[in-house]
Amino acid sequence: MSSFLTLSSGQMLPLMGLGTWKSAPGQVKQAVLTALDCGYRHIDCAAAYGNEQEVGEALAVKLGTGTVLRREDVFLTSKLWNTQHHPDDVEAACRKSLLDLGLDYLDLYLMHWPMAFQRGTDLLPRRADGRVCYDHIHYTETWVAMENLVDKGLVRAIGLSNFNARQTDDVVSIAKHKPVVNQVECHPYLSQTDLLSHCRAVGVCLMAYSPLGSGDRPWASPDQPCLLQDPELKSIALRHRKTPAQVILRWQVQRGVACIPKSVTPSRIQENMQVFDFSLSDEDMKQIELFNRNKRYIVPTVERDGKGVARDAEHPYFPFNDPY
């Protein structure tokens, strides 16, 4: 089986990449260096992660003059943040990521969320009561501005992140440069089977963030099930002499879903790449599909009236009110 997906743009997207969300300053540079040494050829970044400059330091070491790797050997992704959805802000945001990463172009630039926040320099602009200040710029307006980045050669392709099926269709229907990817939370407890089928039908590849269930998410509570401790998953892993993480990643690969597991631990970075030397049986694949609980972990939450609620649920373009 190939270790790449062919995007509608003709680009080859590595099925396994390194995620950098939640990678702390002082750790992410070494994580990227380790990943590139282990054979990773996709690094997933975002302006909102606050660490693109440090990722750029690692890229300068590995892609500099006289190094073995060339720029074209590594697929690099970044994302447009919610406060920069105004068409006048899109190019400047992209150029800032390019500057921080030390690159002349990005292979892929994603709209991080369909929701626009108030323009400005704050990552989360807030009102006096603590609620986020929203903007109602429609994501299709932002998309048209992102298409200009392709025309100018700043990015090779553009895509979506955290878009539901209906929102994906909205963009596809008006696009001159069609989205090549929709990057969403996806793991056996949230298999996204319907969204995967829908995206395939319109020529959009699915990319899974938090493919291992994001056990280190800041808002995790002890009563939530831990995917990597699932006894059925452990049983499958034991049968294949692999780790539960490797089984999950292999499941995604066999479904044709690209993955960007995050780690700063060298042994785990290496382990996560070792998924191309075994296969899961049809029975294994069906068993893992049955794990689905439609359990979404990555929803920013806030406390209101003593309860945890989705922070952005009142935004008109909040994506998770639709079934998929």
Automatic annotation (TrEMBL):
Q: What is its main location?
A: membrane
Q: What is its EC number?
A: 1.1.1.2
Q: Does the keyword NADP apply?
A: yes
Could you give a GO molecular-function term held by this entry?
A: alcohol dehydrogenase (NADP+) activity
Q: Name one GO biological process term.
A: glucose homeostasis
Highest taxon, organism lineage? Eukaryota
Report the family membership: Belongs to the aldo/keto reductase family.
The protein depicted here goes by the name alcohol dehydrogenase (NADP(+))
